[in-house]
Each structure stands twice: as C-alpha cells, then as structure tokens.
Amino acid sequence: MRSYLDFEKPVAEIDAKADELRGVIAAGGSAALNDEITRLEAKSQALLKDLYASLTPWQKAMVARHPSRPHFKDYITSLVEDFAPLAGDRAFGEDEAIVGGLGRFKGQSVCIIGQEKGWDTESRIRHNFGMAMPEGYRKAVRLMELADRFGLPVISFVDTAGAYPGIGAEERGQAEAIARSTEACLALGTPNIAVVIGEGGSGGAVAIASANSVLMLEHSIYTVASPEASASILWRDSGKAQDAATNMKITAQDLLKFGIIDGIVSEPLGGAHRDPEAAIQSVGAAVSAALKTFGSLSNSEIRNRRADKFLAIGRKI
Questions:
Q1: Phi, psi of 263 (to 5 degrees)
Q2: Which candidate in 52, 61, 158, 226 could, as Cys together with 196 as Cys, close a disulfide (CB 3.0–4.6 Å)?
Q3: Separation of first and last alpha carbons in the chain
C-alpha cells in the first residue's frame, strides 16, 4: 500500500480516483474507463514532478525519513555479493545500529559499513533506529583498520538521526568513540566513499562519512543536528523545525554548493521510496565511478587528497 507525505495530498487524491476506477473495471465495469485512468496517471506524474522540483528543505527532510526509503540492508542485498558481516568491537559488545563486513562490489573486494534503522517495529528496536552506541563506532574502527591492512576500499552508507545520546553510551565514551572513528576514516590509506542515503545526522554520521568522496541522494539531508533539535536549541521551540531546516542549509544542493559534499545521486521521480531498486542502482553506479578515480593513487596520495578536501571546506564560501 502506498503512503503519502503531507505535501503529497493532491497526488494522493488523484491516485485514489484512479484506484477507484480500477476497482470498477475489476468488478465488471466498462473497459472504456482505462482512458480516464491513463489521464489521471499522467496528471499524477506531472503534479509529482512539479512538487519534487521545488521541495523545501523541511519537505526534503520528510522524504529522507520516509519509512519505505531503501535502507542499508537493501543496498547490501542488491549491490554486494558474498557479504560476510563482522560483529563486535572486541571491547564491550555488538551494536546492530552499525552493520559492517566484507563483500564484493562489482567484482572488487571491499569493506562495507552502514547504519541500519530497521524496517518494522522489531528490527527498529534491534537496530536502535540507526543510532549507534560507542561499541558501534569501535566496530567501525576495527573494520576500517582491517580494510587498511588488506588494501580494501571502504564504502559507507549513512542513515542516522545521530549517535545515541543515552547515559550508558556516554558512560562508555560516546564522544571518544566518534572521534576515533572519524580519525580512522581520515587515516585510511585505501579510498573510502560515503553515501548519505537518508539522514546524515551530526557526529553520528561524520564518524563514518569522513571520506575521499561524499555523495548524497538527491532528497537526503546532512546536518550538524536534526531540525527539531536545532529549533529547540536556538529558539527553545521544536515547532520551529521548518525554520531551522531552511536556515541550516541541510540539502544536498546547498551542501554541494558549499563544497561539503562531492556529488549528488539522482532519485526516481517522487523519491527513492517510489522506486527503491532504481535508486539503489543509481547509487551503485555513482560509487563505482567514484572508486575508479582513486584506482591509480598511492596510499599517501589518497590520504593527502582526503586531507586537502576537508581542509578546503569553508574556503569556497
């Protein structure tokens, strides 16, 4: 069953009329109604195109959080062969908010790390809604060090509202774990590619996204804090989240202009949730193209290019 965001209500009404006519035909109604259905479908697509051509930052945040948007597990299933997950940080325990392991991407051995939010109530609880504990970031460090040792490129899929802010996480060194993971990203002698596939929230995202090439899906967001949290901090009113989203420049288009990211991956009309497989294949093609640009570079050149990229942020503004 299709689900619609608030700003998509006009599209929902047209689609409901088309579905009603399909029901009439299925019940023995005139096949001539097919022409009207075709007209309604064309009208729906045209309206959807207009809506998505002028989304506000807040509307993009809603699209980025859509529950039907493809998750980390979907990218692994479609893009990675022989994926072998590796669990645990070898210090405290396993954190399923961050999933990682080894596999083959387009015939090349790679290390894959990503945040998984879950897809139903049970899995969302198990994956803690993609909000990692310190052990999740320490697991990411362990995997990156393994990849560096064996010369494997690292591909990160970013989709989190932020690192988990609970007392237990703070007691076990959340800030230090995030810093160590960010340091591990920057120290890699192999190329790393990060893709923001939904939400890229705060240090929880940066910890696995400090990469040679940072890509974003067209309607994803990447921000220092969620719009709701920022509104609470700035105005002590989470109801001003829309204002915060607009002023914080959280969209892929803004971040590309400021040099924060390196590329935008186009989504199917109406967002990745409307055609997940097409979105996944577009990401796969973009990651493959990005990896090829680093194929002839030495370890030191890869590190230097990554360092220069991050040191240049802010100088273009």
A1: -170, 160
A2: 158
A3: 44
Identify the H or E element spanning 194. strand 192-201
Phi, psi of 128 (to 5 degrees): 55, 35
Predicted confidence (pLDDT) at residue 65 exceeds the cutoff of 60: yes
Give residue 309's pLDDT: 92
As to burial, measured by CB atoms within 10 angstroms (0-12 exposed, 13-18 middle, 19+ buried), residue 35 is: exposed
What does the pLDDT read at residue 31? Answer: 63
What is the model's pLDDT at position 317?
53
Question: Exposure of 310 by Cβ count < 10 A (0-12 exposed, 13-18 middle, 19+ buried)?
Answer: middle
Q: What is the pLDDT of residue 30?
A: 66
Domain boundaries, the chain: 6-54, 61-311
- CA proximity to 194, closest of 117, 265, 127: 265
Assigned fold of 61-311:
2-enoyl-CoA Hydratase; Chain A, domain 1 (3.90.226)
Residue type, position 86, single letter = L
Integer Cα distance of 253 and 211 in angstroms: 19
| E strand map for 33-148 | 80-85, 98-105, 108-115
